[in-house]
Amino acid sequence: MGATYRALCKHGYASLRMQDIADESTKSKAALHYHYESKHDLLVAFLEHLYEQFEDDIGADCGDDPATRLVTFVEERLTPRGDGQKEFQTALLEIKAQAPYDEAYRERLAEFDRLVFDRLRSMLQTGIDRGVVDDEIDPEDTAAFLVEHINGAQIRHVTVDASLGAARNRLRTYLTEQVLTGSEAAGSGE
């Protein structure tokens, strides 16, 4: 899976070949074909692998305070994660562009979307229950809005080099001014 990641970063989705993945690993192209019939099958397995990593990553505890957890969770979705991240996001965008035509890609990508949506909805509801999120908001609508903003910001970053930092700041402002209650909003920017 590491070799697939590195090859995707170097070559992108459209130009990626099984040989490129083999070149990034200790396996031969024939060994890759033994386990995966095609590049498509390998990439579906790669998306499954990424989902498992992502599920573990977003399950990490950000503290007990619901306001801090919400802001931290959203900000982490809009923070670059090291070398090759933009190249990887570009390759992932290419895979996403295939999803309308490829059910396996669409299903895997929908799992990511549902996971983020469910986590945000749960955080918002917990915040409402604990009095730190405005009880006038609808957790489902707000979670959908946040997912759409995060996805859009990531796409803009890859396609037109828009700043993730600026998107993160705008979303933090939205959360503190529109979602969190007064006392929680004041402390969430720390």
TrEMBL record:
Residues 17-36 bind DNA. The keyword DNA damage does not apply. PROSITE patterns: HTH_TETR_2. Pfam families: TetR_C_6, TetR_N. InterPro entries: BetI_C (IPR039538), Homeodomain-like_sf (IPR009057), HTH-type_TetR-like_transc_reg (IPR050109), HTH_TetR (IPR001647), Tet_transcr_reg_TetR-rel_C_sf (IPR036271). SUPFAM superfamilies: Homeodomain-like, Tetracyclin repressor-like, C-terminal domain. Keywords: DNA-binding, Repressor, Transcription, Transcription regulation. Residues 1-54 form the HTH tetR-type domain. GO terms for molecular function: DNA-binding transcription factor activity; transcription cis-regulatory region binding. This is TetR/AcrR family transcriptional regulator. It comes from Halocatena pleomorpha.
